[in-house]
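Final report, results section. Input specification for complex C-07:
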Amino acid sequence: MRLGYPESIKIIRVPCTGKVDALHLMRCFERGADGVIVVGCREGDCHYQSGNFRARKRVAEVAGLLERLGIGGERLRMVNLSSSDAPLFVKAAREIHEAVLAAGPNPVGRPRRPPAVPTASETPGKEVIRP
Amino acid sequence: MNAKTPSRLEKILRAGHLAVTSECGPPRGSAIGHLVEKAETIRHHVDAINITDNQTSVCRLCSLAACIRLKLLGLEPVLQMVVRDRNRIALQSDILGAASFDIHNILCLSGDHQRFGDHAQGQNVFDLDSMQLLQTVRRMRDEGKFLGGDPIDRPPAMFVGAAENPFADPFEIRVPRLAKKIAAGAEFIQTQCIYNVERFERWMQGVRDRGLHEQAFILAGVTPLKSAGMARYMKNKVPGMDVPDEVVKRMASVPKDRQAEEGIRLCVETIQRLKEVPGIAGFHIMAIEWEERVPEIVERAGLAPRPALC
Amino acid sequence: MIVAERKPIEEILPWLEGARSVLVLGCNECVTVCEAGGKKEVGMLASALRLLFAKEGREVNVGERTLERQCDPEYLDELRDTIDAYDAVVSLACGVGIQFTAERYPSKPVYPGVNTCFMGAALERGVWAERCQGCGQCLLALTGAVCPVARCAKRLLNGPCGGSSAGKCELGPEVDCAWQLIIDRLKALGRMEDYERLIPVKDWSKDRAGGPRKVVREDVRS
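Structure output:
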């Protein structure tokens, strides 16, 4: 199957959606992403039992926050599928793409390069000033 | 037993008569005429009238002022006092205020939580609990001392009562709890309204087993039901209320326009049955905004006429 | 621990009107454990603020820092060199930490980022419940180690009231009746006879009724 998905989508691999922290999702938007889709294993199929359920709750929490901030909760969603289910992935990818096009650009502005690699200044007790 | 106070209620109880008390709720405003009318309606059929203290945490004219009104009209008020809204200074101060008008009966209560009232955001006090209020009144009366230890000039001469709910949970402590209230100083007890007579009888058995009925006068509480809807409401919505299914069924079995009559009949029957229960010293008829039916209940239950003052 | 909950960002935002540089200041103690004001919550609030400021086109530096404790002067001193870079501080510590930070830096506006709720424990992940009100004179020896002051809605020292129903408080089925718990516990300990002991009128002067309290231990005092 050679199914295409919108090329604006960048894939970030994580070991499990349970690894995706609310803060990771926030950082994506802070750095200019217009939308984020968290793609997890099917419910009940998590290798770590509940990783994808945790992710779902975090996605709901952050989407709610984005809505309250006026950024738009529809920019963040989650889909559960098996790794062999390309058609479903493509469908979800197109849907978020369309949702983001409808919502317009992230009001934060153009994507920016992430700040320098975390240094000692990010260890507890030291402050981090981000641009 | 000799009376310890000039309370008419106490004298009647100590003389061995079945006492009858009732209660009236003060108005939600300063027009007190209706309360006075309600009290006058039952004047000749009850020995004393409880005046509720911001019941269900809904703000009303104060119990003390209403009691004073009744007292000035020659009626016998029972001052209800909850510990929810006043600290020990205010409670004792109001007790003295009542005593200055020769109000001779007090009922010490915790009070419903304010969450269900009309000022749900208010602070509550609970400086004392109801048992500690009993102790406080007894100390004021018997030792002539404030809680703080200073002497009281002309201590309050009050007959001291408490409420008890035989139907609240856990059941096994309902008798020990009564014992605790009596140990704290309660001389009379008005119970929660009784619909489950069997359960009440079981409780009374426990009360007699410990001889508590000889240490305090137990007035059985009754409330006439106005409708099947009220029965269901009491059953489902009022915490600590035990309304058996048969009671709801009986109320629902008659047409709506006759349910009130059925409620009165049930109330009279309950009193008659409770009169046979050893250890009952009287009845507390709580006819919620239905005071005009109290004389009829008293008469039909064979509790009239009320004894003349000795 | 002292349990707090995050304030809605909408409540915090108006305080930061006009600020050019804001420090979100967390605490590594209780509020970290109850997930209201630790490093992670600092990150979330700072991130949300950055998004909001960017959306409004405001250039505001949002710094993040989490101190070991905000209720100890030595840790607060760590901010001495950097605090001047900020116009305002949003502290996610409990009310104690917020005030202590403000006391240490008198010219710096310090705003609360959490609502401090009570002293409690974690019933499970994400659920915290009150256990102590710091009344200053512990009664737990009399009540089977269940506190009626903190856990009875009417703080009855001689309960339960008539509203106790099937083990629940008259407030509703979500609240346990403290006195039911006390009785269950006394029963389990074989000490039901203790139930009939009247607990005397309490000395509330050790509670907040006595005014702001202080504990002094001379033997360890510097």
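Chain B touches chain C through 35 residues (CB under 8 Å). The longest strand of chain B covers residues 19-24. This concludes the modelling results for the funded period.
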